[in-house]
Amino acid sequence: MRMRVAAAGAGVVHAPPRAAGCAWRRNLLDFRRVSALKLRYPNREHGDLALKPGVHAIGRDSAGRTVLVDDADAAIAQFSVDRRGVWLQVRDSLHGLHVNGRPVKRMAMLRPGDAIFIDGVELLLVADKPEPAPPFGVEIPADSRMVVRGVGGVHHGRCYTLEQPKVIGRAGDCDIRINEPAFADRHARLEAHADGVVLRDVGSLDGSVVNGQPVRHALLKPGDQLLLDGQHRFVIEAPTRRLSAADALQAQLAQEQAANEDKPTPPSALPSSVRRMPWLLLAAVVMAGLLGLLLLYGAR
Q1: Over 70: is that where the pLDDT of 279 sits?
Q2: Is the pLDDT of residue 185 over 70?
Q3: Do 151 and 12 form a contact (C-beta atoms < 8 A)?
Q4: Structural contact between residues 177 and 162, judged by C-beta atoms closer than 8 angstroms
Q5: Contacts of 86 (CB under 8 A, 6+ apart)
Q6: SS3 (DSSP) at 274
């Protein structure tokens, strides 16, 4: 029996993400665009397993099926859903767990559309269906800084910018070439959009899969995962806004000012009588000088 998981998330990694220090961000789960997360069987022979923000334990029922369980001690793995995304944690004793064909020993961060093979069952992480693509002939405001990054298949690790539209296919003149006999000469076209990337089918047989949902034409948002022919995976990424030098300096000064305002004035280590001593000495010297002058000139 095989099973798939439908959800929304961020792509597969084996460690928590580090602080952003590059020009591109790898978008995580956006709860504003996701109404529900689900774990789905491939043939829908069983109901979807809904995932809401929080921790969800995965175990077996009396029939041996992989299901959500209430007893964490009986779990073989768990999904943690928070504002950062969806995290899969695995028991040390569990072996043979894979995400998109890659083995996972302890933890993996997930994106929508990821395939999870666990305990003899394949789960697919699926999100809501993406927005439809703009109609043909409509002028599209574009952000050409969008990037398409390969995360699986022959283009794993490669990035493609979208200053010009990119065509995916088997033909030699395609911008992103997948030279496999079953792949269409021209499968799909990707073009930059103000809100993401427009996917248009241009001759594929079965279409494409976005976040676990079959589509032909769609508007992809940063963080969405595009799957072609069951193994070629791409993620849409967007540039982060870099602060100018003036903005960065202003932010730093404001932060330091706020920190100084919050700090109480440190008490002096000397008592107040001692702190007043220099002024008393100065006043005594001045008075002595005036008396000396008075005696000197008054005697004449």
Answers
A1: no
A2: yes
A3: yes
A4: no
A5: 7, 8, 9, 10, 29, 37, 51, 79, 80, 109, 110, 125
A6: helix
